[in-house]
Structure formats: structure tokens, C-alpha cells
Design goal:
four-stranded mixed sheet, mainly beta, Rieske Iron-sulfur Protein, binds FE2/S2 (inorganic) cluster
Length: 190
């Protein structure tokens, strides 16, 4: 895989995959890298992964693999958080929070898709709910769609900064996987 130098103050894109314990090293602030796109069968079977978020600066995003799925993690800016929080439920095609830790009836408020006190961290299963493409919005220079979140170019689905579907054929919001903060800067997914 190629390793490209990038300016450290821009959004970084990082895919890490594999181990039971994944520490996203300080290298993320120096250069992004693609470690591995396809985890082996053993990695796919892992029930949980731990991710150190401390190198991910505000405005940056990383992608990790969990159970063979890409997990999008974005450290949202205050503007992105405000936009997500200010969105009216009546503007959302899918009114469900789609949070694996909440009942399906939980409304799609931004607060139901993030952790209290950690509202800058957006953690999503990065699979379009239309036909399963991987949306754009993680890599430097990607289109983030009309709502500043993620954009699926396969058939034109636009997700907002909370990962909620806003426009296009996708029927559901991006799923929030089960995860918890195990320390101030570390999450455990699964
Ligand atoms: Fe994403 Fe169709 S798979 S819009």
C-alpha cells in the first residue's frame, strides 16, 4: 500500500484493521496510511476492538474494521455538532435513531446517536443502507454530500453530520454500532 505524506492539519483518513486491541498511533498526525483493507478471517470474527482516539484531531476521521465492517469515526467540529443537533426530526426521512444500544422506537435525535459528554465523536457502520456501498466522506477531498456528512455515490444518498439519511434512495440512517468509552479517549466497539 502506498504511504502518502499529508498536511497534519487536514482531515486524515486512516484504515486500520485486525487486532483485538487496536491503538491508532501517533503516526496519524504525521501521515495517514492504509494498513489493510481486508482483515483475515480471524480478525473478522473478533467480537470487539478497542480504538485509541487520542490522535484523531477535531475535524479528522478514521475508519477501522469491526467484524468485517468499516466503522466510520469522526471527531466532529462544533459546527458539525450544532448542525446535527439543530436538525428537526420532521426533516428526517428515517425517524429512528438506529442505535444498536437503543430500541428501534428511539427518535433519531443526534443525542440518541452519540454518547453524552462526548458529542464530538460520531461512530457509524460505514455501509450505505440502500444497497451496501461504502459512502464517501472519510478521506481527504471526499465529497461529504449536501449535508456535510457522508455521500454515497452509487445512487446518490446524502447523510448528514449525524449519519442520518437526508436525501436519496437510502431508506435508513447509518447504523450506530454498540460501543462504549472505556477511558476518556478510548472506545470499545462490540
Ligand atoms: Fe448507497 Fe445506493 S448503495 S445510494
Amino acid at each position: 500500500m502506498a504511504i502518502e505524506a499529508e498536511e497534519p492539519n487536514r482531515r486524515d483518513f486512516l484504515i486500520v484493521a485486525g487486532n483485538a486491541f487496536i491503538a491508532v498511533g501517533a503516526a496519524v498526525t504525521l501521515w495517514p496510511f492504509v494498513a489493510q483493507m481486508n482483515p483475515d478471517a480471524g480478525a473478522q470474527a473478533l467480537a470487539s476492538v478497542e480504538i485509541d482516539l487520542s490522535p484523531v484531531q477535531q475535524g479528522q476521521a478514521i475508519t477501522v474494521m469491526w467484524r468485517g465492517k468499516p466503522i466510520f469515526i469522526r471527531n466532529r467540529t462544533p459546527e458539525e455538532i450544532k448542525e446535527a443537533e439543530d436538525t428537526s426530526l420532521s426533516d428526517l426521512p428515517d425517524g429512528s435513531a438506529r442505535n444498536d444500544l437503543l430500541p428501534e422506537s428511539a427518535p433519531a435525535l443526534d443525542s440518541n446517536r452519540v454518547k453524552e459528554g462526548k458529542t464530538n465523536w460520531m461512530v457509524l457502520v460505514g455501509i450505505c443502507t440502500h444497497l451496501g456501498c461504502i459512502p464517501k466522506g472519510q478521506a481527504i477531498g471526499d465529497s461529504k454530500g449536501d449535508y456535510g456528512g457522508w455521500f454515497c455515490p452509487c445512487h446518490g444518498s446524502h447523510y448528514d453530520t449525524s449519519g442520518r439519511i437526508r436525501k436519496g434512495p437510502a431508506p435508513r440512517n447509518l447504523e450506530v454500532p454498540p460501543y462504549e468509552f472505556v477511558s476518556d479517549t478510548k472506545i470499545k466497539i462490540g
